[in-house]
Amino acid sequence: MRCRKPKAKRAQIEKQTAADRKSGARDAVLENRRGQVVGIEVKASSTVKADDFGGLRRLGDRLGDDFIVGVVLYTGTATLPFGPKLRAVPVSALWQVG
Hints:
By secondary structure, the chain is α/β, with parallel strands linked by helices. The protein has one domain (8-95). It has two helices and five strands; from the N terminus they run αββαβββ. A hairpin with a 5-residue loop joins β1 and β2 (37-42). The chain is globular and about 30 Å long. The protein starts with 7 loop residues before the first helix and ends in an 8-residue tail after the last strand. 24% of the residues are buried. Mean pLDDT is 82; it is low at 1-6. This is DUF4143 domain-containing protein.
């Protein structure tokens, strides 16, 4: 990972990200050198619903194949699928090696 000035299409995403922050969506957007993107949102809840993926879905729609995965970290216990490239993952998984 590295920090760099966004490409033209990324500039639009950065603007959207700033707007979404007001509503609490997309806490982090990570991009590698190939332009592939992972979106992460953190919820202080033990349940996740489809609406929690709204910002990540919009990011995926804008990026197409460059969008690798959107993850909602939550306080639950199971990794759950919420559609193509979208997952709810327990925050505790960050400390597990397996």
